[in-house]
Amino acid sequence: MTLEKEDYKEEQRNKVLAGALECFAQKGYEGATIDDIVNESGVSKGSIYKLFKSKEEIYFQLMSQNSKELMDEINAVISKHTSALDKLTALFTEYLGREVNSKVFKSFLVQSEFELFSSRREDLRELLEERRRAKVNIISDVIHEGINNGEFRKEIDITVHADIFWSYMHGNITHKILYPDLPYQELVNGQKESFLKKIRK
Amino acid sequence: MTLEKEDYKEEQRNKVLAGALECFAQKGYEGATIDDIVNESGVSKGSIYKLFKSKEEIYFQLMSQNSKELMDEINAVISKHTSALDKLTALFTEYLGREVNSKVFKSFLVQSEFELFSSRREDLRELLEERRRAKVNIISDVIHEGINNGEFRKEIDITVHADIFWSYMHGNITHKILYPDLPYQELVNGQKESFLKKIRK
Amino acid sequence: MTLEKEDYKEEQRNKVLAGALECFAQKGYEGATIDDIVNESGVSKGSIYKLFKSKEEIYFQLMSQNSKELMDEINAVISKHTSALDKLTALFTEYLGREVNSKVFKSFLVQSEFELFSSRREDLRELLEERRRAKVNIISDVIHEGINNGEFRKEIDITVHADIFWSYMHGNITHKILYPDLPYQELVNGQKESFLKKIRK
Amino acid sequence: MTLEKEDYKEEQRNKVLAGALECFAQKGYEGATIDDIVNESGVSKGSIYKLFKSKEEIYFQLMSQNSKELMDEINAVISKHTSALDKLTALFTEYLGREVNSKVFKSFLVQSEFELFSSRREDLRELLEERRRAKVNIISDVIHEGINNGEFRKEIDITVHADIFWSYMHGNITHKILYPDLPYQELVNGQKESFLKKIRK
DNA sequence: TATGAATGAGCCTTCATTCAT
DNA sequence: TATGAATGAAGGCTCATTCAT
What we know:
4 copies of one chain form a homotetramer. The first copy, chain A, has 201 residues and is mainly α. The first copy, chain A, has 2 domains: 1-52, Arc Repressor Mutant, subunit A, CATH 1.10.10; 62-199, Orthogonal Bundle (Tetracycline Repressor, domain 2), CATH 1.10.357.10. Helix content of chain A is 80%, strand content 0%. The first copy, chain A, is built from 9 helices and no strands. The longest helix of chain A has 28 residues, at 122-149. Chain A is elongated. Chain A starts with a helix and ends with a helix. The mean pLDDT of chain A is 90. Chains A, B, C, D: Residues 33-52 bind DNA.
C-alpha cells in the first residue's frame, strides 16, 4: 500500500529522470525545457513538479543518480577481476566497448556539462569535490591493492595516479563523444599502455 | 578613412568578443545575456547587433578567434624550441604554468562548453572536426619531425598519438578548472612522462 | 440512514468551511489553495469537490454561513438584555472583549476581503446588499424599540443610524485587525459614547 | 538629456501605476495580471519589467504613491481653512462630495485591499504602522491646534481621537464603496456631528 | 465512496532581437 | 551612426479541477 505507492512514485521519478537525461543529452540543461521532459518522459508537468521542486532539482538528482550508477558499474567491473592490473585494464576496455549512444555516454555527456555548470557555482564546488573524491577513492584502492600485491611500484603517488587515471578517462570519453568517428580503440589502448607502464613494476 | 573605419569596427568587435569571453566564462553561453556583454564590453546593444547578427554569431566568432589564438600560441611555443622533444615538453609545461584565471583557461572553459554545444548540433559537427584537425596537425607535424630527427620511434601511429596528446591536454586542463586546488603540476608531469616515454626512442 | 449520511456530509462540509476560514484568514482568498484547505480541514481533495462545486463556492458558502453566525451571535447578545440602550452597549463591548485571534475576528477579516471581492463583481452586488439589509435590520429593530421605549429620540433617522452603527463597527474592527497593538478599548469606548450620545434622549 | 530621459521614465512609470490602479481596482491585486496592466497602461511587458522589479513592486510603489497623494490632498484641504473646526469639517465633507468612480475612491479601494494584504505579512506590518502614524499625525496636529485655540476640550486624548477620526473615515468610505446607492451624505453628516460633538468645547 | 495522482491553462518573468531617435 | 527603449515569444512554475482506482 504505502509501499506500493512509494514504489509507484519512485517509478515516476525514474521516468522523469530518464526523460531528463535524454533531453539534457540532446539539448543541454538550459536548452531542454520542462515541456521537452514532459514529452520525453510521458509524465505531465504537474506531476513532475509534485515529484521535483524545480528543473534544477531534476538536474541535481539526475546527476547524483548517474554518479551512483557510474560508481556501481565501476565496482561491478572491478569485482569481476582479481589482480589489480586486470581491474584497471578492464576499466579501460569496459568504456571502450560502449556505443556512443549508450546510456553511459549520454550520462557522461550530461555529467560533463554539469561539471562546467558546477565549476561556475560556488555552492556546488563542494559537491564537485565530493564526487571527485569518490571516483579517486575507487581507483586509489585498486592501486593500493596492486602495490600490496607486488603488481605496482611502491614509490608511486597513489592519489596523483588515481587523478591521472580519471583525467585520462575524461579526455578519452570526451574525445569519443566529440569525434565519434575516430579510431577510438587505438587511442584508449595507447592511453592504457601509457598509464599502466608508469605504475607497473 | 574607410580603412580607419574598418579598424574601428574591428576594435569594437574585439571589445565585444573580449566581453563575451568574460561573460561566457562566468555564466556559460546560455546564462550570459546580451546585457551582460553590453556591460562587460562597454559596447551598446545596438552596436553589438550591427557588428554581429546574433548572440550565436558572437559565440561562433569568439570560438573561431580563440581557436586561432590557441594555434598561434602553440606555434609560438613550438618555434621557440628546436628539438621535437623540447617542443612537446614545452607544450606540456606551457599550460602548466598558467593561472586558472588566465585568458587561456577562460578560453578553454568556454571552448569546452562550446564543444559540448557543438556535439549536439549536426550543423556544427564539421566545424568541430575541422578544429580537431587543426590541433592534431600541429602535433602531428612535431611528432613527424621527431621521427625524422630520430628522436621518436618510427613505428608509432602519428595521428593517434597526436589525438592522445590532445586527449591528455583536455583531461588535464579540465581537471585544473574543476579542481583548482589539486596538485596540478605533479599530475601534468605524470602525464607528460607517460606520453613522452611512449613515443621516445 | 439517509439522515445519518446527510449528517455526515454536513459534518464534512463544516470541516471544510472551518478549514477554509482558517486558510482564507491566513492567506487571503486567492492566496489560499485547495491543498491548504485539504491540509487544514483534513478532508481530501476529491471529497471537497464532491461537497462543493468550486473554490468559489466554498468561499460563498463560508461567507453565507459566517454571516448567519454573526447574526445569531448578535441576536444572542441582544436577547440577553432588556433595554435598547443596554443592547447597543453590549454590542459595542461584546466585540471589544474578543481576542484578535478569535473566530469572530478571523471571520471579520475574511468578510472584509469578501466585501472588497463582491464590490468588484456585479453578480455579487445583490448579495452584498442583502447582507447589509440583514445587519441594518437587527440594529434598526433595536433603535426602533428604544424609540418606542422612550430611550431614544423620536426624530432620528433609524436606518441612517443603523448604518452609522455598522460603519463604526467596521472601522473599528478593521482598526483592531490592522493595528493590534493599539489601545483599542478607549477607541471603542469613544465611539460608543459618540454614537449613544447622538441617539439618546 | 539625462533629465529628459529621467522625465520620460517617470512618465512611463506613472502610466504603469495609473494602469495598475485601474486594474487592481477592477480585479484586485491577485486577480489583475501583468497583461491587464500592459493593456490598460499601454506600456509593454518588457518595459514594465525594466521600470519595476516585479508585480509586487508595482503594488508597493502604487500604494506608497497613493498614500502620499492622500496626505497631500488632506494637507491641501486643511490649509484652506484657519480654524481647527473648519479643517475637520472640511475633511469630512471633502470626501463626501467625491464620485465613487473618482480616483480617490479607487485608491481607497485598492488601499483597503492592501491593508488586508499587509496585515497578513509580517514584513509589511511596520509599513502599515508607519502609514497609520502619518495619518494620525495630521489629525493630531489639527486637534492640538484646536485645543490651543480653545476650540476643543483640553481633556481629550488627542491620539485616540485622531484614531477615531480615521476609523470613522474608514468605515465611511468603505460603506460608500460597498453600497454606492446609500444616502451617504446623511451618514457622513451623522458621523461628523458625533465626532465633533465629542471634542468641541 | 474516498483518495490523491494527473492534467494543462495561465501566470510572472526573462531576454534576444528590433526599431525609433 | 550609436543608443537603449520597446517588443513579445517562450520558459518555469502553480494550482483549480478532473478522473482513475
